[in-house]
Amino acid sequence: MILSESNKSVLRAITTHVDPSLSVFSVEEQLFYNKVCRILISQFLRSDHILILLTNTKISKTKKTDHLKMNRYLLSKLKDES
């Protein structure tokens, strides 16, 4: 897994300012958790989110278009980080 520079800096800050003996999760466990979360979010965005959005009658058409654009953007970002 390739980490972006911002993710690396956050992990570095956490591991240098937190006593490792007090940590609930190791760095490896946290990286695994983050990867699982990205996979689950991607799955939701690809399947459920679109269906929920398109069948929702409370959201205007312009807002639905904005949501779909953001959906595509988020999926592209999640794909880049995996």
Distance between the termini: 6 Å
Low-confidence stretches: none
Cα-atom radius of gyration: 17 Å
Mean pLDDT: 82
Give an overview in words:
The chain starts with a helix and ends with a helix. With 82 residues, the chain is an all-alpha fold. 76% of the residues lie in helices and 0% in strands. The chain has helices spanning 5-17, 27-46, 48-55, 61-81. The mean pLDDT is 82. The chain has 4 helices and no strands. It has a domain at 26-81.
What's the short story on this structure?
It contains 4 helices and no strands. The chain has 82 residues and is mostly helical.
SSE diagram, text form:
Layout lengths: L4 H13 L9 H20 L1 H8 L5 H21 L1
Helix pairs in contact: 2-4, 3-4
Observed structural traits:
mainly alpha; 4 helices; 82 residues; elongated
